[in-house]
Amino acid sequence: MNLEISxxxxxxxxxxxxxxxxxxxxxxxxxxxxxxxGIMVCNLTIGKKKYSDxxxxxxxxxxxxxxxxxxxxxxxxxxxxxxDKVMEAFQLPKDTPEQKVFRQERIQAATLDAAVIPSNVLxxxxxxxxxxxxxxxxxxxxxxxxxxxxxxLVLTAAEGAFLNVLINCYSxxxxxxxxxxxxxxxxxxxxxxxxxxxxINSIIKKLTKD
Length: 210
Hints:
Layout: H1 7-15, H2 23-45, H3 55-90, H4 97-138, H5 144-170, H6 175-207
């Protein structure tokens, strides 16, 4: 997402027939939103006497989430550019055998690059969800629902990123390498899903009165 445009313009671009921004961009944006919510919970925790024993850690987590916020934003923009490169490769001439070979090589290289971006989103989700877990357990308990929404958003980001890994790997000629790449990313996705599920269930239990 380009922060220089309004959110309405972003939504207009997203809902248009243009392929970018697309699902990969939105997945990374969910990571941004999750990080921002996590920062909010930290801000609502820092300075509160009740959470004084957690304050230093909350400050450190807040700084990490700020950096994650920026990294997710950068990945959202990279996702657009990566897809544009795939489209550019498809538009290369294919009139001669040499051109066909070159075109196919560029398509494969660009597609692999496009798979790497959501993989990086997944890695960042894994780091983010661990911090959300800590603040949901030790941060301001009046903000439990906010921590829960942050957890849900991280899972959405991870799930969206994994789907984008899958669709790009599906188009790769070297399916042996593609399947190995998918396997490593599936591990990340399952880790995020497990931790997010634990967080949500824990929060629901805390907020449910007998």
